[in-house]
Specification:
The complex is a heterodimer of chains A (793) and B (40).
Chain A lengths: L11 H5 L6 H13 L4 H12 L6 H7 L3 H5 L11 H14 L15 E5 L3 H12 L3 E6 L7 H4 L8 H12 L4 E4 L9 H7 L2 E4 L5 E2 L12 E3 H10 L8 E5 L3 H12 L3 E5 L11 H10 L2 E3 L2 E9 L2 E15 L5 E14 L2 E4 L3 E2 L22 E4 L2 E3 L9 H20 L35 H6 L11 H10 L14 H16 L7 H4 L28 H10 L5 H14 L2 H5 L2 H10 L15 H17 L3 H5 L1 H14 L2 E2 L4 E2 L8 H19 L3 H5 L2 H7 L7 E5 L19 H4 L17 E7 L2 E4 L26
Parallel strand pairs in A: 1-2, 1-4, 2-3, 4-16, 6-13, 7-8, 7-13, 8-9
Antiparallel strand pairs in A: 5-14, 10-11, 11-12, 15-16, 17-18, 19-20, 20-21
Chain B lengths: L2 H24 L2 H4 L8
Classes of the chains: A alpha/beta (793), B mainly alpha (40).
Chain lengths: 793, 40
């Protein structure tokens, strides 16, 4: 039964993720793998594929994203949120080490050519999504190497070059052409580009530093933060001087300071507000201080002192906080007369950056930023834009903007509407049940000590979590807002039980005259069979067993024309529906298992044993021996025929007397009873073991299951929580095994709102509900379903 | 499975199954079947 209040609610991690990553699904896939006896590697790959629906750079973002998702995690109220960023990084690294490749989401190709300017995160994301859609994409990069700010703006100890290159290479392997060393606006004009390409996406970033506009700034040893980082990316032997002063409080300033420190300088950061207002990632600020970077808070540069045209010191002005400004932060106000001086061999100005755009000014505003709507559309001649060129943001923001622009470009080129934004309600801590959640320690990657960092200057500081840590951390996640299932009886289940018992057990065995006459039924119905496994030797049976009939044909060396037609029609219409709704032995298995104490999984290869039983015991051996060997061993026959006969021993009309005297009970009888006993025990601990591994009738219907008209369908809204398996009487993971040869179409899984009944018509499925979106592969929305959830942010 | 392949498979299955059923009836299959057992 579903708790309706908790359906379709948005987990806070998804809502706050700049890319709208389906974090909850990723956690569910990883944490359920062990419980579903699924190979972990397979689960990691699936989780990576879910992640890369919205983010083609998980290894990069897993290292550099400030992870607002973790701050928003409902588990923060229980001590510490889930280490989402570490899991993202783990999956990214897993994909790299296992050489997982991105795949196209549709085989169809489109004739339109797309030019992407800039190979930073926005450009790569846009190119990735369009290439997956079948577009011909070319990326133009002004630098000699791709990656933009990821490569030239983030130091190696935070983001190793090989990680960037591996993820970029995987994206380019989708068939994207990369032209490096080509500057649009220099080597190639924007007009030329527009004439050759149908759509242009601008993702050049914002690498141009903003000046301080103070005296001495033009000295040759005063440089910008991005310029400094770019230079040191290529030249680790560069020595910036003994004393370096960095002006600014953002990530670029902190990165530049830590790089200068590694190059042998004594470094001071000047920031005009306090630690609380400092925009850099808090963890990075702490790490910088731990490494030895000194931060002068509430200080601003007043002038740069020069000697022989070179900067030798910076004169600082002490500040205090005043009233909040437009950004909501308290405005720094100078304290008149309080100045100080710091010696400097190099001054790095990293106060901010601006768009580095040399193209047409029709797309820019007066401050030089490119103007575009939420979908990246500039409104100028099929030109889109995304990333820092629209305004400074995170790598994750740039990826998301590139993704949305790709979605808009695809919709425009194909004449489709843009996806409607859904605004689901956020799950709050009060709405999730943490009562059963045991507080568990958070697992996150280890860090090099400061001493180790001094010895291995450019080594990555943080390590990736292990496989076990990733699983344990995903297991800690409570998957807020997913479908909550309980074992309450539903009207559908009651109907199924009534059908199983009323039709499968009673109606097919309704020759009650046998109680008075002690003579079994021998009328015309005996010439046909029931659709389920129901022993014709049951004293009250009215019809034959299809498997008994099949053996009859094999033993009499006749081809079962009629039987094949009969079973074929049932199979084609309903597949294994009979197993779920009409089979009396299925009913027995369900009933016995309802007293279960534990649920043991069956190894997958055993599922194929039923085909062996069908071929050998039902066809080959009866054909060779003229005897019904499956019937001799059948536990269903033992239960509903052998035991009643032994107790009661009615008359068979053709013998006109007690047909088989009780003293005829031989060893086969006791073998059969023993088999039944074993199965009854198994029913307690295993869901429908007979149906899954032995039943030859199930094996016949299984052949039709995927094409039968009666069908089930998992909606795209499925949150991959995996809890549906608890409902399935066949213990299937129906996200992948729905309508498979083991699905008995009992519809118990439709208790989950994300599964529904559907007619599998040969000309296309017709779902009962009309709320389905496109199927997950061919019609997958570019950014995956969760991109539309971001309206809630 | 593509729609076309699905349709073709379905039609072939229908032909085979209905054909089998008709042949079985013409050959007198249902009347010829006589299975009983004691269960012992």
């Amino acid at each position: 039964m579903i708790d309706k209040d908790k359906l379709d609610l948005l987990a806070p991690c998804i809502a706050t993720c700049p890319q709208g990553n389906d974090i909850r699904a990723v956690m569910a896939i990883i944490s359920e793998a062990d419980r579903l006896e699924r190979p972990r590697g397979e689960a990691f790959e699936e989780a990576w594929r879910v992640l890369t629906r919205t983010n083609p750079l998980p290894a990069v973002c897993g290292r550099v994203c400030p992870h607002p998702c973790e701050t928003a995690c409902n588990l923060c109220d229980r001590g510490c949120g889930i280490a989402i960023n570490d899991i993202e990084r783990f999956l990214g690294d897993w994909a790299i080490s296992h050489e997982l490749k991105h795949t196209r989401i549709q085989a169809q190709t489109h004739p339109e050519k797309i030019a992407v300017i800039g190979s930073g995160p926005a450009g790569l994301a846009c190119a990735y999504h369009l290439a997956r859609r079948g577009y011909n994409v070319t990326i133009f990069e002004a630098q000699q190497k791709s990656g933009g700010m990821m490569r030239y703006g983030i130091p190696e100890y935070r983001l190793p070059t090989d990680i960037i290159e591996a993820e970029i290479e995987n994206i380019l392997d989708l068939g994207i052409e990369l032209r490096t060393g080509v500057e649009v606006g220099g080597d190639l004009s924007f007009v030329e580009l527009q004439s050759e390409y149908d759509v242009v996406f601008i993702g050049v970033g914002a690498q141009k530093g903003i000046k301080l506009y103070c005296r001495g700034e033009d000295a040759p040893n005063v440089t910008g933060g991005v310029e400094f980082l770019r230079r040191t990316t290529d030249d680790k032997s560069f020595h910036p001087g003994d004393r370096v002063v960095v002006v600014g409080g953002g990530d670029t300033a902190v990165d530049a300071a830590r790089v200068a420190l590694r190059l042998g300088s004594e470094v001071t950061i000047m920031y005009r507000r306090t630690r609380n207002e400092m925009p850099a990632i808090k963890e990075e600020i702490r790490e910088a201080e731990a490494e030895g970077v000194k931060i002068e808070f509430l200080s601003a540069p007043k002038e740069i002192e020069t000697r022989d045209e070179r900067a030798v010191a910076i004169i600082g002005q002490r500040m205090q906080l005043g009233e909040p400004d437009d950004s909501g932060r308290r405005r720094p106000v100078p304290i008149i007369g309080e100045e100080f001086r710091i010696d400097a061999d190099l001054v790095i100005v990293a106060v901010s950056q601006t768009a580095d755009w040399n193209g047409p000014t029709e797309v820019t505003n007066r401050r030089g930023w490119i103007e575009a709507d939420d979908w990246g559309d500039t409104g100028f001649k099929m030109t889109y834009a995304g990333g820092d060129v629209k305004g400074l943001g995170l790598v994750a923001d740039a990826v998301h903007q590139g993704t949305k622009a790709a979605e808009a470009i695809h919709a425009r080129l194909r004449g489709e509407d843009l996806p409607v934004e859904i605004k689901p309600t956020l799950v709050t801590t009060e709405q999730i049940s943490l009562a059963k959640t045991e507080p568990a320690p958070r697992h996150e990657g280890g860090k090099l000590s400061v001493k180790e960092r001094r010895e291995r200057l450019w080594a990555e500081i943080k390590s990736t979590i292990t496989v076990d840590e990733a699983v344990a951390e995903a297991d800690r996640c409570v998957k807020c807002g997913t479908t909550f299932l309980s074992k309450r009886t539903t009207p559908l289940l009651l109907l199924r039980r009534f059908t199983q018992f009323g039709i499968g057990v009673v109606l097919f065995n309704s020759y009650f005259s046998v109680f008075s006459t002690k003579t079994i039924y021998a009328g015309p119905l005996r010439n046909i069979c029931v659709p389920g496994l129901n022993c014709h030797a049951c004293p009250t049976a009215t019809m034959g067993c299809p498997i008994g009939m099949m053996q009859y044909f094999a033993a009499t060396h006749r081809f079962p024309w009629f039987l094949i037609g009969f079973l074929g029609i049932i199979g084609l219409i309903s597949g294994r529906f009979t197993c779920g709704w009409l089979c009396p032995f299925g009913f027995v298995q369900d009933m016995v298992h309802s007293f279960k104490k534990l649920n043991i999984r069956i190894p997958r290869p055993l599922y194929y044993f039923k085909y062996v039983v069908l071929v050998t015991l039902v066809f080959i051996i009866p054909y060779l021996t003229y005897e019904h060997w499956f019937s001799k061993l059948c536990p269903c026959g033992a239960l509903i025929a052998a035991i009643p006969w032994a107790i009661w021993n009615p008359v068979q009309p053709q013998f006109d007397t007690t047909a088989v005297p009780l003293d005829a009970i031989g060893s086969m009888y006791w073998i059969k009873i023993w088999i039944l006993g074993v199965f009854l025990m198994l029913f307690l601990f295993i869901k429908r073991p007979f149906c899954r591994t032995i039943c030859p009738l199930g094996a016949i219907y299984a052949l039709f299951n995927r094409i039968s008209l009666v069908s089930l369908r998992v909606k795209e809204s499925c949150t991959n929580c995996g809890r549906c398996r608890e409902l399935c009487p066949m213990d299937l993971d129906f996200r992948t095994e729905i309508n498979s040869e083991n699905c008995i179409k009992c519809f118990d899984c439709t208790q989950c709102e994300h599964v529904e009944f559907s007619w599998n018509l040969p000309w296309g499925s017709v779902a009962e509900a009309s709320r389905l979106r496109a199927p997950p592969v061919e019609g997958e929305a570019i950014g995956g379903p969760v991109t539309t959830s971001r309206g809630n942010r | 499975m593509t729609k076309k392949l699905k349709l073709v498979t379905f039609i072939v299955m229908i032909v085979v199954i209905v054909g089998s059923l008709v042949i079985g009836i013409l050959l007198g299959d249902p009347q010829g079947i006589r299975i009983e057992g004691s269960g012992l």
